[in-house]
Amino acid sequence: HLISDSIGIQSYLKEKYQIESKYFPYGADVFLNPEEEAITKYNVRSGNYAMLIARMEPENNIEMIIQGHLKSGVEMPLLVVGNTTNDFGGYLKSTYESSKVVFTQGIYDLEMLNNLRYYCGVYFHGHSVGGTNPSLLEALGSASLIAVNNNEFNKAIIGEEGITFSSIDEVVDVYKTDLKELGERFRPINFQKVKDIYQWDKIIKEHANYFNSISV
Q: Which of 43, 90, 164, 176 has its CA 20 to 30 Å from the CA of residue 16?
């Protein structure tokens, strides 16, 4: 018995190996207690910064997002959250660190991360491989306005309630949209999506029921 944590993985197993699998997504929790004062630690204000959270690896398209952010000419800073101690992270930091691109290093306080996601103007998710990404679900649960790398894994989660990009110029285009209007439209839908589909309690119960149904 196989379990896939994304529709994309389920389709891949079916198409490449002719194997059936049960789909259960990864889970998340909704963020219910935002505190705007918390984000002042990073010298940012509500709605006036962009951010991304990722391992510093090329397949997460961090450099594309940074270059698009800089090319857009927007005044808001981009917070790059993630450990830069590997070679690629060191390259990104040495090449792009400035007042416009702020490398925070890893942030392991979930409340702080949730507050940063909640108050950001736009949250970039550049991951291009894998199944249901936990950080993407956490961004939904923090009611972020989300721009995702345009691939089947991300689009299966974000649906029509987000922005997609696949190039530097399309990152620039993200900033040409009315981020405030899109946020007002998409943020509550994505927040509700986590409550209805991805809440950990629901996901755990679905797993347990399935395990009981296949036990002998």
A: 164
Task: With H, G, I as helix, E, B as strand and everything else as coil, classify residue 76.
Answer: coil
Cα–Cα distance measured from residue 107 to residue 98, given in angstroms and rounded to the nearest whole number: 19
Which residue, chain included where needed, has tokens 């951010």?
51
**Residue 165 phi, psi (nearest 5):** -150, 155
- pLDDT tens digits, one per residue of 29-47: 999 999 999 999 999 999 9
* DSSP helix/strand/coil, 28: strand
Residue type at 142? S
Please, what is the Cα angle at 109 between 107 and 115, to 5 degrees?
Answer: 90
Distance in angstroms between the alpha carbons of the first and the last residue of the chain: 13
What's the distance, CA 136 to chain centroid? 3
Angstrom CA distances, 82 to 22, 23, 123, 199, stand at: 32, 30, 14, 25
Record the tokens describing residue 61, joined without a space. 């398209």
> Which residue reads 């009981």 in tokens?
212
For residue range 112-163, what is the model confidence (pLDDT) as tens digits? 999 999 999 999 999 987 767 889 999 999 999 999 999 888 888 898 999 9
The beta strands (E) that lie in the chain are given as 3-4, 22-23, 50-53, 78-81, 101-105, 122-125, 146-149, 163-165
